[in-house]
Design goal:
The chain is mostly beta strands. It contains one helix and ten strands. The radius of gyration is 23 Å and the shape is elongated.
């Protein structure tokens, strides 16, 4: 099987050698797209012949819709609106001082609303296939809640809620396949190569800047699929 970076290298090479075909994409063409992503995990561990151990898991769902309009045959400007819900829970049983049992239960959830203006540059091979480079600015509002409970020895409970703004910039390649004459298409963001710049401002006044670049070859996170319509 071809490595992802080799596959995308061949696609980019083909785009430079093939004639430009605009395939009904022109100035004023409107765009609509939507997707829902899910992820989750669970784990459990325990010492042999003992109650000592722990278990936990997390779940995340991320719906998003996008609207846009073509400024010319190869450039799309638009706006995305996304929502993310994250939930996690962990429980552990441990010994303090070698004899006192402590049970720790931690839960957390986050609600994230994101406004995402974007633009794309397209290269179409024919009436069906094309590739694009998706550049997106992200402005996010986050509410995060956290609860920690200790049972057994030294029982107590701690709760915390924080609200903060953040932002970022990401660049990703993508591919599109047109399904028919009515403008419906399948799109895939290729999470093969990417750049990211993020900023978070927390309520305590701390500011965090992070920069990331990545190369990914794991499946199924390699491709993010969505349904779109060009009309």
């Amino acid at each position: 099987m071809l490595k992802p970076y080799l596959l995308w290298g061949l696609l980019l090479l083909a785009s430079t050698l093939s004639p430009s075909v605009h395939a009904q994409l022109s100035k004023g063409t409107r765009y609509w797209g939507g997707t829902v992503e899910f992820s989750g995990n669970a784990s459990k561990s325990k010492r042999p012949n003992s109650a000592i151990g722990g278990e936990g898991g997390s779940f995340e769902v991320m719906p998003e819709v996008q609207w846009g309009r073509f400024r010319n045959a190869t450039t799309l400007w638009g706006l995305g609106l996304g929502y993310t819900y994250q939930s996690s829970r962990s429980e552990s049983i441990s010994l303090l001082n070698g004899r006192d049992i402590q049970i720790t239960d931690q839960t957390g959830n986050s609600h994230i609303i994101g406004f995402r203006p974007f633009f794309r540059k397209y290269k179409l091979f024919n009436d069906r296939w094309g590739i694009f480079l998706h550049t997106e600015l992200q402005v996010n509002y986050t509410q995060r809640r956290f609860t920690s409970r200790n049972g057994g020895y030294g029982a107590n409970e701690y709760r915390n809620t924080i609200n903060f703004w953040g932002g970022g910039l990401s660049i990703r390649p993508g591919i599109m396949y047109r399904l028919g004459q009515r403008g419906w298409s399948l799109e895939g963001y290729a999470n093969v190569l990417g750049l990211g710049l993020n900023y978070d401002r927390l309520p305590d006044g701390d500011n965090y800047f992070t920069f990331s670049s990545y190369a990914n070859s794991s499946f199924p996170s390699l491709i993010t699929l969505r349904v779109a319509r060009y009309f």
